């Protein structure tokens, strides 16, 4: 049996041969343009084809392979790109090729004929080490130890090495570390609506992007990179992920930011939750349609429409025009209808005066404009939101007076000066379709990441860009926040579904978030996503969560302590996420600037190699070596989705977590119950211990005690209630609801006369979106 050193030499010889073959191909392709003869167009075509093939080779410093599988007498090397020698012998197969499937899918339970799976650790094209899995031996060890598949096969040295590497402002590919369950999703049928539900650290975004690469490879030449659209929630996120596919050899895939998916991107207009919820509802589509066609009407305060002037002018009565308009309204797009009406007027003018010169183009256009104004999406929506009369006329019985009041806003003096919110973008896109039809470019496959927050109107915007309904949808219901926070994928799949099958598939193994961190954060799950199965985390982190109690917060103290923690991590070469609520943001920005610290504002689309300041909502989907979470209680209190925002913030790290708190590092709902609610709980027969005295949950029960952290000290355990079972959670909900109702009733009695109570309650239902319930 050869020694490890001898095996390394044999493997390196193969790597060297494959490298020479690849670089020989590179040299040939580099000279292809100059070697080609004939017309310039032929030379250009040859050069373009050669350049495309060059991109598929990867870099000259890249290792030729990262793995090997032995199947019977056959040895197969797996790498990013296929490599063949001059005799057309395959030296390395692409990870996307069907032949590579056993490398990813073989297990001790079903080895698929694989006797050996070897993964290489390389520095450029030099093999530093390798890790072997001999499936017969693995099956025997599993049987002897009674270990789970996840424990024996869920994580390997290649994955550990990748996770130990520092994060940067760009996502990396995971070709070398794709797990069996991930690979099955990557290579699943293109013709479906695939929803991937994945908790923090399950690799769902990477799976979706590698699925694109796999589809492009296996469906070429029918599927081209330009046929694929990747939609992210923000410009920051899109920048973060867009280097993955080019690194796999797949350039020219189209990326779009959800805030720019339309004729006009968001300009950052701020709007409240109720208006954002309203603008996301499907009934807005009908409102826009009605409002647009209502712009077509005979001019007021006149009974004649005149085409031209002076001798030869032709007049059309109100009755004539109003009788004709139904032949053009609602049949096709607004723009096509306008062109049809214009053609009608031109024919009529010529028919009435066959020997005349006909209507001048300018005169004809002026007449058409009076009846059927030329509109852009931005001009139409600005006019609509800036007019109560137009909103009321279009709303009919579909909207309340309060809702019309929410939609109304003062229009800017110029269309170009109008500011647009994130939710306006989908409405502008809807208007664009009504005006000019569906987008001219539609895609054969669409990937949507962080899809758990999308509104029905945003889903319509995405669906109209799909050629067939083939999509990969990625998200986590436990991280769903905002006006359209959801508990299941049902409404989303219903909105996007076509004749294609719908598959909702969870990723059940978590790799990237350390076990200690996830166990700490997962105590929120019974409250934020009680029906969701959390992923099984298979990796230990380098340290327990660092919980720093700083006493009662003041802006200066918390900012100084947070900055010190972030700088300590950055000083160790870590990519840091500094996640804070709005309450402390201004002071933190001032502190960063005052200390001349290099930092990036994630909300502005930036990611830096050092410290990155973000709100919890802005950090979704991002990964950092270290995360500093500031004031969990303030995060929870800032919005009705505060617990989910906190869950997002805590799970952005791949290594280190620091939490700065004022005594409650993990504020669960029970910690906010008032004395009045305790009394109410006792009246209802609930023990106070059910609310407050549940045992503390340390992140590792076997390794830690449940002793609290001393004031001002750093520790890993803090006082927080254990996740309640379904019974206590239900009882607690009753307690909270009843107590809240009593508090609101007391306020109502003090503030409003009794004869107005019913009206106030009716308005409150509308504010909460309960009108139809």
Please state how the strands of the largest beta sheet are arranged side by side. Answer: 19-20-18-21-22-17-23
Runs in which pLDDT lies below 50 for 5 or more consecutive residues are 147-154, 671-735
Q: What level of helicity do the residues show?
A: 40-55%
CATH hierarchy, class of the domain at 515-672? Alpha Beta
GO cellular component, one term: cytosol
Protein name: UvrD-like helicase ATP-binding domain-containing protein
InterPro entries: DNA_helicase_UvrD/REP (IPR000212), P-loop_NTPase (IPR027417), UvrD-like_ATP-bd (IPR014016), UvrD-like_helicase_C (IPR027785)
GO molecular function: 3'-5' DNA helicase activity; ATP binding; DNA binding; hydrolase activity
List key phrases describing it.
23 strands, Rossmann fold, 773 residues, hydrolase, single chain, alpha/beta
Structural summary, described in words:
This protein is an alpha/beta fold and 773 residues long. Among the domains are: 4-153, no CATH class; 186-267 and 439-509, P-loop containing nucleotide triphosphate hydrolases (Rossmann fold), CATH 3.40.50; 296-371, no CATH class; 515-672, 3-Layer(aba) Sandwich (Rossmann fold). It has a seven-stranded mixed beta sheet. Strands 3-4-2-1-5-6 form a six-stranded mixed beta sheet.
Topology of this structure?
Elements: H1 4-30, H2 32-35, H3 40-57, E1 67-71, E2 74-79, E3 83-84, E4 90-94, H4 101-105, E5 114-123, E6 126-134, H5 135-145, H6 149-153, H7 157-164, H8 180-186, E7 193-198, H9 204-218, E8 228-232, H10 235-241, H11 244-247, E9 254-257, H12 273-280, H13 283-293, E10 304-307, E11 314-317, H14 318-324, H15 334-352, H16 361-371, H17 377-385, H18 388-395, H19 401-407, H20 424-436, E12 445-448, H21 456-463, E13 471-475, H22 490-496, E14 502-507, E15 509-510, H23 515-521, H24 525-528, E16 536-537, E17 546-549, H25 555-571, E18 576-579, H26 582-594, E19 599-601, E20 611-614, E21 624-630, H27 632-637, H28 642-650, E22 653-661, H29 675-683, H30 688-691, E23 714-715, H31 726-751, H32 757-767
Parallel strand pairs: 2-4, 7-13, 7-14, 8-9, 8-12, 12-13, 15-16, 17-22, 18-20, 18-21, 19-20, 21-22
Antiparallel strand pairs: 1-2, 1-5, 3-4, 5-6, 10-11, 17-23
